[in-house]
Specification:
It is built from 30 helices and 19 strands. The chain is elongated and about 110 Å long. The protein is α/β, with parallel strands linked by helices.
């Protein structure tokens, strides 16, 4: 009965506060300003999507672009400025009671202090709900006109904003309970909220202070909600913050009604804070965390293949990030950014909560031309001191070269920033940064590193001699990028394979080889080499053969034995962008159906560019399942007459046996032999995965040649390496609004809607004054 009375008292106080709030101009003015701000952002974003649609460009996801965390979305902006509204609403909740003296009546009445504070807070719960309702109206409008609208991400994002508003409100009520002056309460609340809104950028020089400010970063905790993921840690963080400040407010009223010494007050205040901090600490335990990814594409969660890898790892893992002060990528792992760097590993820790993260900072000479240019004629120790000043870090927090060498051998990695993943048995794998614009490893590369802890890396052996492409050749025709470059994202090393060279004439060299690669030889193979290759094939070994124009004859003995023939001429096709000898070939339906790697690049409109390709004839193949993966358009032909590829004229001469049509340039053969699956890939070109083509973009042609490294070798590994991050695509890429509707958006959301709010407020206030 007493609890029921307390609840009724709370509701009665909340009703009184709501009447006071909505019969005052301030609340309505704030609603009006808020509606205009949100409406302006909404019209800007949605209008941009409509304008793009009018120009023939679609949206990748309307839900994400309007209500997600993208730069154009309306939600991050609301998150940044919502704290400016709260002090104007909460400043009078308790200060008004003090100033008018009505607080004494409340003290003398049978109303509990908790009912007073909770009633005040409940009024803010309702007002906060109205603010969220305004945003919800915009989402409902978008939902009506967007097929397959991803409403779940909007619901989770609104929950994050609502919790943020309630946390700000609880803080505002506490400061309002401290003084009878509303202006002082407003300024105090605004100052604290501004501090909490920007505290994440403070105190990064110390590990302890960085962790404290990271935990205090209120707006940052709502960021995960806006991205569409519900995290129990962040949810309970807001609940704890709300409980903390409401408890402090209730205790403040208790001190007014009872006499206690300052020491007792301080101890009780500290006890409340300590209990809440303890609860917050408990919620950070990885094993107690719960996640729900509300996005349709599950973009906040590891793909199924990555999840399976993490579940297969039974040992406890340690991920140590080694950060070199001299490396160009130092800023990614700057001590000030350590907590944000840990967020990059959060997806993996979610599925492997016993993972330990460590950071080791050091300085050692490494390749950095910018550093040498900016600090010439200086020793490395002097450069270290200069950089510490620039980066606002302490030199004593960094190990020198001798100290880091005593811990770990980073010389093979050229002392670049990296992570080393280690299990309890001492098995270590390296997670690298890359020499491209993206720099950081994606889920694909990261999952590959974890996969190497539980799956054996296939051994890929590249044939040497006979003019074959060399792995240590940095030139245009070399295979350094695909074979030996540790910092090329699409190299075999970074796909999970082990790589070595192989002497075709040495039978013992074939032992332990999972995939034999023979690239573009330009000399006849010896009888011994042929015998070894034939024996390897007969045993069921996997083989990747790449040849080039005028060199197919040297590999003819091998491919002919499989029933395959290379055409003698060069495949050409008229092209407005580059030479006709550079032939863009398309992924066939067989390729698309055989691997998600081919499917994804084909859906994006990418092709493969082959500079000097041979056509392949598989009509004589027996006992193998044949698939043609790459084919030309029907405008290509095999050129026999023209040999001048620079100034020569390419015309299809039917009298010379030339005929336009579709030609295969890449085929696969597979069969069951000796109780295992044998896989053989044959390419009519070797230049297409050489250094030059993997590092060159050609104007007018969207080429994805590295796909022909990833695709075939994943096939060779039985779909174990590399990892494929296969996600469903967003399905809300269109909006059913007519051309030119952008103007109507402005009229509705910047005119009619705010005007209706203003009229409603004026009518209610006028009726109140009339009574």
């Amino acid at each position: 009965m007493r609890k029921h009375n307390n609840f009724n008292q709370t509701l009665r106080i909340a009703k009184i506060e709501l009447n006071t709030m909505f019969y005052s101009p301030v609340a309505w003015l704030l609603l009006l300003v808020f509606a205009v701000q949100v409406g302006y952002s909404f019209v800007d974003v949605l209008g941009g999507i409509l304008d793009s649609k009018d120009l023939g460009r679609g949206a990748w996801s309307v839900s994400q672009q309007v209500f997600g965390t993208s730069m154009s979305s309306i939600m991050p902006g609301i998150q940044r400025y919502i704290y400016l509204y709260i002090p104007l609403l909460t400043m009078g909740l308790m200060s008004r009671e003090y100033a008018s003296g009505s607080i004494k009546l409340l003290y003398s009445s049978p109303v509990k202090n908790s009912s007073i504070i909770l009633g005040k807070f409940l009024s803010m719960v309702v007002y906060g709900g109205v603010l969220i309702g305004i945003i919800a109206l915009f989402s409902v409008f978008t939902h009506i006109f967007t097929p397959h609208f991803d409403y779940k991400i909007v619901v989770v994002g609104l929950l994050g904003l609502y919790l943020l508003i309630l946390a700000y409100s609880a803080i505002g009520i506490f400061f309002s309970s401290l003084t009878k002056y509303q202006v002082v309460a407003a300024i105090g609340t605004l100052a604290v909220l501004a501090f909490l809104n920007n505290v994440g950028d403070m105190g990064r020089g110390s590990d302890l202070m960085r962790d404290i400010t990271y935990w205090l970063d209120l707006s940052g905790k709502s960021r995960s909600f806006l991205s569409g993921i519900f995290s129990s840690q962040d949810f309970f963080y807001f609940i704890i913050v709300i409980t903390l400040f409401l408890s402090l407010s209730i205790f403040k009223l208790n001190t007014e009604k009872s006499v206690m010494s300052m020491k007792v007050k301080v101890l009780k205040y500290c006890a409340i804070v300590a209990v809440c901090l303890a609860c917050g600490y408990i919620t950070t335990f990885p094993k107690l965390k719960y996640y729900y990814d509300a996005t349709y594409t599950q973009s906040n969660t590891l793909c199924k293949e990555s999840q399976d890898i993490m579940r297969n790892i039974k040992d406890k893992l340690t991920i140590t990030t080694y950060v070199n002060l001299f490396d160009e990528q130092f800023f990614w792992f700057h001590p000030h950014n350590k907590n944000y760097d840990k967020e990059r590993l959060e997806k993996y820790i979610r599925f492997k909560p016993d993972t330990e993260l460590k950071y080791v900072y050091y300085y050692a000479p490494c390749e950095n031309k910018t550093l040498e240019a900016n600090y010439p004629d200086m020793t490395w120790d002097q450069r270290a001191k200069e950089l510490c000043t620039v980066h606002n870090v302490k030199l004593e927090d960094f190990l020198n070269k001798e100290e880091i060498d005593a811990i770990v051998d980073l010389a093979p990695e050229k002392y670049r920033c990296l992570r080393i993943v280690e299990d309890q048995h001492g098995h270590k794998e390296v997670m690298r940064m890359f020499n491209d614009n993206q720099k950081l490893p994606t889920e694909e590369e990261m999952s590959m590193v974890f996969n190497k802890l539980v799956a054996k890396s296939p051994m890929v052996a590249f044939a040497k001699g006979y003019g074959a492409r060399a792995l240590d050749n940095y030139g245009a025709r070399g295979y350094y990028l695909v074979g030996y470059d540790k910092w090329f994202r699409h190299s075999l090393y970074n796909m999970g394979f082990d790589v070595r060279t192989l002497d075709l004439d040495n039978a013992a060299d074939y032992e332990g080889t999972d995939v034999l690669v023979i690239t573009d030889i330009n000399e006849p193979l010896s009888e011994t080499a042929l015998a070894n290759i034939y024996s390897y094939i007969d045993r069921g070994g996997d083989l990747y053969i790449l040849s080039n124009y005028k060199r197919g004859k040297y590999l003819a003995p091998v491919v002919n034995r499989l029933g395959v023939k290379y055409y003698d001429g060069l495949v050409v096709q008229e092209n407005q962008y580059i030479s006709p000898t550079f032939v863009p070939v398309d992924f066939t339906q067989a390729a698309i159906e055989s691997s998600p790697i081919y499917k994804s690049v084909a859906e994006w409109g990418y092709r493969v560019l082959m500079p000097t390709a041979l056509a392949i004839d598989c009509s004589g193949v027996k006992n193998f399942e044949v698939k043609s993966l790459l084919e030309t358009s029907d405008k290509a032909w095999v050129e026999y007459g023209t040999t001048d590829f620079v100034d020569g004229e390419f015309v299809c001469d039917e009298s010379a046996g030339e005929k336009t049509g579709v030609y295969s340039t890449f085929v696969t053969l597979s069969r069951q032999i000796n109780g295992k699956d044998q896989r053989i890939a044959i390419s009519g070109d070797a230049d297409f995965i050489a250094n030059e083509e993997l590092s060159t973009a050609h104007s007018g042609i969207d080429a994805s040649n590295y796909t022909m490294v990833k695709g075939p070798f994943r096939w060779f590994s039985g779909d174990k390496f590399p990892i494929v991050v296969d996600r469903v695509s967003a399905v809300d890429g269109d909006i059913n609004l007519p051309v030119g509707f952008s103007m109507w958006l402005k009229i509705i959301f910047l005119g009619i809607f705010p005007l209706s709010l203003m009229i409603t407020g004026i009518v209610l206030i006028a009726r109140r004054q009339g009574k």
